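Incident log, support desk, overnight shift.

02:14 A customer reports that sequence design results differ from what the structure should imply. Their input is reproduced verbatim below. On-call engineer (initials T.W.) acknowledged and began investigating.
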């Protein structure tokens, strides 16, 4: 089933440029890659710094890690702010903020004065900037790409993010830390500065009219809160968005239920050394990258609804296969297959939101949707740990598979073309 163009656009909107091969989109993809390398390096180096500063105190290390993810709790408000400004400026501002924060951290580490009381708010503010960047990066794509190119463009952006955060950033951050502890934070600052420089080239190709700037927004804190509520209300009453949020929450629960105990599963159930855990993560990352490479072609062949059904069904089956046949080569393959299916889901749902959401609310729709995904993850991690302890290490895989199979009826009747008013 083919996807249509959102009826909320107007004739005043500038014509989007042809997508995948243009210089402006190459800038967007490269900027995402650079920011992702910086994020990945920070994800690796900041816990190492927290462990060094606190003497290996597990509580404070976890607090620093949680502070960065806690920023997603403010995602709906951030989405409102993104809707009120040109998207390229939101991305540039987020990059420059992270560049400044990491530069300060670099000098603190050089001077030997980086206490935990500084690391916690720094991790949180960096996370806020990350939410700004990610929300704006998704909201700007419809201004740059034709409708038929949305899947291909989103797949390229997601592939760049996977490469940065999954393959390049973390090992590079850890290696630089081992060489000279302040160095990964200097790298972070430089990648964000380079990303901001690249994004300045988007200004002429992403005019404000297409990005929801202006247009009767209510001012002040009360206005921001009202507009935030309007975005959440749209997500709640729109049947497609509502169904997608239910499924993505279940995806988050299932994935985290498995990954929260994966290291224990690898050692205790598969009988492998703990080092094999990292190899399983590499297999998953390879699968995710392969999924990004093939997602646009799959969406073209099967349509959005067919691709969403396929992604959820394949994810469910991959979990159940591992539960039934705990053989380590098969587990590695199933993790790769599962990651590819999840990326297919992400590419299709991002493109669908870009088609169905009003342009001046896309930031709020994006951030609210992603809050549903991120908010479900702690629930999944806790459920996976509890099940593994009380029932056995196969139980989280069974739970993830069964829950996803139960979600399939929500997708069979999904309408992927926009209707008048945007609601169903």
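02:41 Re-run completed on a clean worker. Output:
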């Amino acid at each position: 089933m083919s996807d249509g163009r959102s009826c909320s656009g107007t004739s005043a909107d500038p014509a989007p440029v042809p997508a995948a091969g243009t210089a402006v989109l190459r800038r967007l993809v490269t900027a995402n890659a650079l920011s992702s390398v910086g994020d990945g390096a920070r994800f690796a180096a900041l816990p190492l710094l927290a462990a060094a500063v606190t003497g290996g105190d597990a509580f404070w290390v976890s607090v620093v890690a949680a502070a960065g993810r806690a920023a997603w709790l403010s995602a709906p408000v951030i989405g409102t702010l993104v809707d009120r400004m040109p998207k390229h400026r939101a991305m540039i501002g987020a990059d420059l903020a992270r560049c400044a924060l990491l530069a300060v951290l670099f000098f603190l580490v050089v001077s030997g004065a980086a206490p935990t009381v500084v690391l916690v708010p720094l991790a949180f503010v960096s996370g806020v900037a990350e939410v700004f960047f990610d929300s704006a990066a998704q909201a700007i794509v419809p201004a740059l790409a034709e409708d038929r190119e949305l899947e291909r463009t989103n797949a390229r952006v997601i592939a760049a993010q996977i490469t940065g955060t999954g393959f390049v950033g973390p090992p590079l951050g850890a290696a630089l830390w081992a060489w000279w502890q302040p160095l990964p934070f200097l790298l972070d600052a430089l990648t964000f500065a380079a990303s901001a420089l690249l994004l300045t080239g988007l200004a002429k190709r992403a005019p404000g009219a297409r990005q929801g700037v202006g247009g009767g927004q209510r001012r002040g804190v009360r206005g921001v809160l009202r507009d935030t509520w309007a975005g959440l209300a749209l997500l709640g009453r729109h049947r497609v968005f509502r169904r997608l949020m239910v499924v993505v929450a279940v995806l988050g629960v299932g994935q985290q239920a498995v990954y929260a105990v994966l290291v224990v599963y690898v050692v205790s159930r598969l009988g492998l050394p703990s080092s094999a855990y990292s190899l399983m993560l590499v297999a998953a990352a390879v699968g995710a990258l392969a999924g990004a490479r093939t997602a646009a072609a799959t969406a073209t062949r099967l349509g959005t609804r067919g691709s969403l059904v396929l992604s959820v069904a394949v994810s469910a089956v991959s979990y159940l296969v591992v539960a039934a046949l705990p053989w380590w080569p098969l587990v590695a393959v199933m993790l790769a297959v599962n990651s590819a299916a999840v990326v297919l889901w992400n590419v299709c749902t991002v493109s669908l939101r870009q088609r169905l959401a009003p342009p001046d609310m896309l930031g709020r729709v994006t951030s609210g949707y992603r809050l549903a995904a991120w908010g479900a993850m702690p629930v999944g991690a806790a459920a996976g740990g509890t099940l593994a302890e009380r029932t056995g290490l196969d139980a989280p895989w069974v739970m993830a598979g069964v829950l996803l199979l139960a979600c399939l009826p929500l997708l069979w009747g999904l309408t992927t073309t926009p209707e008048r008013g945007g609601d169903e």
